[in-house]
Amino acid sequence: DTEVTQTPKHLVMGMTNKKSLKCEQHMGHRAMYWYKQKAKKPPELMFVYSYEKLSINESVPSRFSPECPNSSLLNLHLHALQPEDSALYLCASSQDSSGQGRFRYGYTFGSGTRLTVV
Amino acid sequence: SQQGEEDPQALSIQEGENATMNCSYKTSINNLQWYRQNSGRGLVHLILIRSNEREKHSGRLRVTLDTSKKSSSLLITASRAADTASYFCATVAGGAGSYQLTFGKGTKLSVIP
Fold first, then answer.
1. What residues of A are in contact with residue B41 (Cβ under 8 Å)?
2. What sign for the dihedral angle of Cα B16, B108, B4, A115?
3. Low-confidence ranges of chain B (pLDDT < 50)
4. With pLDDT > 70 as the criterion, what percentage of chain B qualifies?
């Protein structure tokens, strides 16, 4: 299995809703990432998990809450979002992780969740 | 924060022609990678070039890296309609520590059949 699976593919939520995005990989990768991508823009890093521990939080508002229950799963819990949070949310994993110094492989990305906040 | 700047922002070519995209960055890197993205979906890793490498090939792709100019180029030879996509360079900062990608703004490539 060489895939990163993201669910759901599309999500429409109100500003008072609570929802979660899910990401799963079974490649044995020990680093996982959340990126946010607005239309016609490059992906921007939100969170990095290395060996199931949060290692980087790029000053993301607390209405986004990541969780890594085990080495294969990564969740992003959403609460009280704003319309400007509407974007494509991408999950990725990598065989290499921080602290190794020598990075030989790229990231494997999921297909993303298209989120619309109304 | 974005580090890479791709040039051009958009490129339209005929099928069979070569496509060249350039990327410039600002700080020292551990490696530079190129990714393709179709229609706003997931990104696909194309190639990784380390800071001590100057050129790398993979199929119809050729990547060069000039660390003195802080720039890289991606050449796609004999382009096909299926190559139509957005292409992003992404850098990994130099030094020990974090493996995180910082993406450039991307080049939108259209290959006309």
1. 88, 111-112
2. negative
3. 1-2
4. 94
pLDDT of residue B97: 64
Q: Which among A48, A106, A112 is the nearest to B100, CB-wise?
A: A48
Q: Decide: A8 and A112 in contact? Cβ < 8 Å.
A: no
Helix (H, G, I), strand (E, B) or coil at B48: strand
How many helices (H) and strands (E) chain A has is answered by 0, 11
In the numeric block, which tokens belong to residue A49?
């998990």
Chosen from A45, A86, A113 to mutate, greatest number of chain B CBs within 10 A: A45
N residues, chain B: 113
Of B32, B24, B31, give the one whose Cα is nearest residue B4: B24
Strands A73-79 and A87-94 come out as unpaired
- Burial group, residue A16, by CB count within 10 angstroms (0-12, 13-18, 19+): exposed
Beta-bridge partner residues of A98: none
